[in-house]
Write a structure and sequence with these properties.
Layout: H1 25-47, H2 52-59, H3 63-72
Helix pairs in contact: 2-3
Length: 86
């Protein structure tokens, strides 16, 4: 059986951070969180064919929050369902 994939398709157990990275903890953490958010939102929208309402439901988050996050990341989804609170 193949090992589970880690972040960004890396093998499970792969280091998240370069051991030679000399940046402060807060900077490294911010970069990792930003990468996670972009990867997560991109995959979420792809899995739901760009349908923001369906993606937000699947993620357990408000559609407007997901829309803002996608816009901040420069990603685009398509509107679908739940248009009554637009």
């Amino acid at each position: 059986r193949a090992p589970a994939a880690g972040p960004a398709g890396a093998p499970a157990g792969a280091a998240l951070v370069d051991p030679d990275d000399a940046r402060p903890f807060a900077d490294v953490k911010a970069a990792l969180v930003a990468r996670f958010e972009e990867d997560y939102v991109r995959a979420l929208l792809a899995r739901h064919d760009g349908n923001v309402a369906a993606a937000a439901r699947a993620a357990g988050m408000d559609r407007k929050h997901l829309t803002r996050k996608a816009q901040t990341l420069g990603l685009r989804g398509r509107r679908g369902g739940d248009e009554d609170d637009a």
